[in-house]
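[agent] plan:
  1. take the single chain provided in the ticket
  2. run structure prediction with default settings
  3. attach structure tokens to the ticket
  4. add a short note for the reviewer (M.T.)
[agent] executing step 1
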Amino acid sequence: MTRLPRPLDHLLHGAALGVLCAFAITASAAEPAKPAKSAPAKAAKAAPAKPVEAPLADANADQIDAAERVYYGAYDCEFNQTIDIEKHPKHAAYVNVKSGKSIWLMKPVLSSTGAVRLEDTKGETLMVQIASKSMLLNIKTARRIVDECISPKQRELIATAKAAKEAEAAKAAEAAKSPVDAAAAAAAAAASGSALPAASNVAANGSATEAASRPK
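[agent] step 2 finished; step 3 output follows
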């Protein structure tokens, strides 16, 4: 095999290397660029911040008076439902009203009729308390959430009112009988009074007859 001269051999070797480099550059330029990987998604979304509630106004004398008239404790309502009213642990003269899983922060207000209104500080519900019962209303839908709620204090007032009504009825019945008895007594007295003069006349006439029949 005929060997090329060394300078020519080096020249051919360099030319071959140049061709290979040029082919590699062309191939890399023709290859499409790969899209960059997106940042990994967060494992969990951050919890939404709780809304900041507006501060409650300090209770005035009227609100304190109304809060003292609230019947606190457990209420038995219709359809085996219950309501519980308790004093708010932080805000004086405010109450918590619980029904099921719902809790409302309410402000006691005394109405002109004597009823106590528990007004929701968020304007969603209203509880009305009278002597005989209480009811919880939804202001926005104008519907009753629960009705016929009676606390132990209201039950006591109902029993007292019932006993007073029965006593008044018995007194009225007794008063109705009194005029009849009085009229009967008056009639009996009148009859006995008229009989006495008649008896006296009979006795006098008898004495006169006896005296006339005697020999003179």
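[agent] step 4 note for reviewer: Residues 207-212 have pLDDT under 50 and may be disordered.
[agent] ticket updated
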